Amino acid sequence: MIKDELRRGIIHENPILVLALGLCPSLAVSTSLQNGFGMGMAATFVLACSNVIISSMRRIIPDKVRIPCFIVVIAAFVTMVQLIMKAYLPALDKQLGIFVPLIVVNCIILGRAEAFASKNSISKSLVDGIVIGLGFTFSLCILSIIREILGSNKLLGLKFFPGYEPMTIFILAPGGFFTIAFVMAVVRYLGNRRKGA
Amino acid sequence: MESFASLIGISVSAIFISNFVLSRFLGLCPFLGVSKKISSAVGMGMAVIFVMVIASGFTWIINRFVLLRFDVEFLRTIVFILVIAALVQLVEMALQKYSPALYEALGIFLPLITTNCAVLGVALINTEINPITGLQFTFFETIVNGTMSGVGFMLALVLMAGLREKLELSNTPEILEGLPISFITAGLMALAFLGFAGLNFFA
Amino acid sequence: MIDIIKLSFMLTIISVAAALLIAFTNLKTRDRIHEQQQVAQQNALEQVVPSGMSINECNGENPPCPQQYWIAQDGTDTVFIFKIINKGYSGNITYFVGTDRNGSIEGMSILEQSETPGLGSRTQEEISDKYFWNGLFSKKETGKSWFSQQFKGINLNEQINIEKSVGEWHKLGMEEKEKLISDNAVTAITGATISTQAVVNGIQDQARSYLKAIQESNDDQG
Prior knowledge:
Chain A is an all-alpha fold. Chain A has 8 helices and 2 strands, in the order H-H-H-H-H-H-H-E-E-H. Chain A is globular and about 60 Å long.
């Protein structure tokens, strides 16, 4: 059961690599594993919390103003995360910069609120939030690992390959686009092969 | 005169050097979603410029005269997103009533803009330090930054749409079809835009 | 009409609840955030001077200086530390520079910057000589960034040169590093000349005049 859910979030409905949602933060902060993981965790927290609250209020939120209501709930949790990060992980907060408040407009979170939490029970929504959040974190980590190793020859700030001259372009904007294109193509290739087999 | 130079600096910086899409990674969803045809790219670009200018102005006023004055900066995210959502709704209603032709052209893009991170992004960037002057943004600089960031977004979007129209006709390996090849194209564009980083407006 | 009132009522309730939640979090984290800023500043200050020196804040009256600064003392050695804010490539760079009476730089450390990741933000990059597979669980080193290390021994009263042709400081040998100091030069970060220039300019324009103000007042006192 848990295994199926995890597989759904990380593989079949992977928000970045399969559904292509939440692309802005995933390209902007995946310059190092630390940043990517921190961003993923922050988004997972917001996603799980907002899913629970929205699901618990799904019967009292009027249909006409549901989107503004969702946004308010999400924004509240994002600000919470932002303040907590500033207080306990100030270095990470500096690195992520405006992409912490921009979690508000991450289409994954609003998308799950609209498509899942507003129609399902609280416990289901909680699981959905965590699973999709983990899928987001997982793909962010993959992107960050590739970019950090190729672009600065480091992983978590420690040297990686002996005698390798890093290609800074992978840390810069173009490298972000190339990396995600490559990872998406690999995911699609693996998916095709499974279908064929 | 000083301020005129700074306005030019802000414009060039917003359009080319730190292009919203290709260098700051803001507004990628519409960049990939609405760039299949040049005509819709132009429509989306116009709508974004429109909303960005209005949102920049309003959020600057609210930030300066409400959030900073009453020391409630921690409410910034929630206030900004609500203001943007309300503005988009108002613009949509106003256009529908007073300019049906424009509404026809931009209408379908407007609802998408609330959750476009480029709009909230420009509002948040306007609260930071202006990299050209090293000071806070003034109201006029905010408006210019909003407009030019929108122009930069539209430029990237239209260029991308032009490239994708050609890509449709080309022979792409199956696993690269659709998004991956678009990302590679965007990466090459970003590479070209990286060249603008050498423009030195800062020294 | 009833409908509109109901909708706005609902939206208002949710907004107020959200604002209360945020205000509560703010109340709980405010002190801690302030404390973190103090800690970051203290760490940056300590990196400027040799360890063990006590650092005291001066309000800028005795000796007078146009800006707040810090004095670190250890026996007869005195280091003046200035806080410098200068415009970088994207936003301001804030950093500390410590110097002795003659203008010889004791240390430099970056407190805050928002430069491009992979380029200008490497002003804060620490070079680790440990590899990922054997260094991951060992204690994290809190060394200084290579970029700031190269400022030690540079004289800020003379023109500070930026050397772009020899490569980055952390890759150079002992001899080349000594030659840089005798040339009063620092190496630029590859691809981030503007950020390098901003740091150097800040030292030349601001720290130099602050130090001069202090020296003059000392001369006056005899």
